[in-house]
Amino acid sequence: MEDSTRFVGFDNELILIEALKNGDELAVEYWFKKYRLVLKKTALSKVSNAGVAAEIVQETFINCLQTLNLFKGNSSLLTWMYGVMHHEIADYYRKRYAKKIIRTIPLSDFFLDQNYKDASSSAELVSIVLKRMLQNNRELLLKKYVDCKKVKDIASEMGNSVKSVESDLFRARQEFKALWLELDHENN
């Protein structure tokens, strides 16, 4: 049977949405076929990794299905899906930067000793620790390890000496370690 006859009526967005809300499997298949490629193209333009883009698109469809009852129709279905995908892309980058911090902060021995194997929970813990840090220390760590700025560039930007920034980075890493251990103790 041809797609055109199998999917009769679903080209009307209101009918499609109602069928999706009712769990119509044919509607889900039509919806996926109709929007998958356009979403993947957009995701690829944002993450430039085909595998990651495919995962983001998959998560977008899952989240859209789970929250379809929240869709009020104030925009097109595709526009709403782009909004959901935007959040998925933002989550991807947040997790990626948190993992990068774990890998780049010279605390690797510290983390290895802690036996944190689940990257997403570690990324979440890093985010919580950063939020608890003194603002100056947090900003310094983010400039150094997320923005990958050199100490001399940070010093120039802040109007401080290189030695002063190195000392501040040492104290910021110490605060990070202490807060990490405190948070770990709270969770166990």
Question: Could you characterize the architecture of this molecule?
Answer:
The mean pLDDT is 83. The longest helix has 28 residues, at 77-104. The protein has 188 residues and is mainly α. The protein is elongated and about 70 Å long. It contains ten helices and no strands. The chain folds into two domains: 3-94, RNA polymerase sigma factor, region 2, helix turn helix motif (Rna Polymerase Sigma Factor, Chain: A, Orthogonal Bundle); 105-187, Winged helix-like DNA-binding domain superfamily/Winged helix DNA-binding domain (Arc Repressor Mutant, subunit A), CATH 1.10.10.10.
Structure keywords:
Arc Repressor Mutant, subunit A; Rna Polymerase Sigma Factor, Chain: A; elongated; mainly alpha; 2 domains; 79% helix; 188 residues
Strand elements, count: 0
Number of domains: 2
Question: Percent of residues in beta strands?
Answer: under 5%
Could you report the average pLDDT, rounded to the nearest whole number?
A: 83
Query: Mind describing the biggest β-sheet?
Result: none
- Quote the distance from N terminus to C terminus: 58 Å
Tell me the radius of gyration.
23 Å
The level 1 CATH classification of the largest domain is: Mainly Alpha
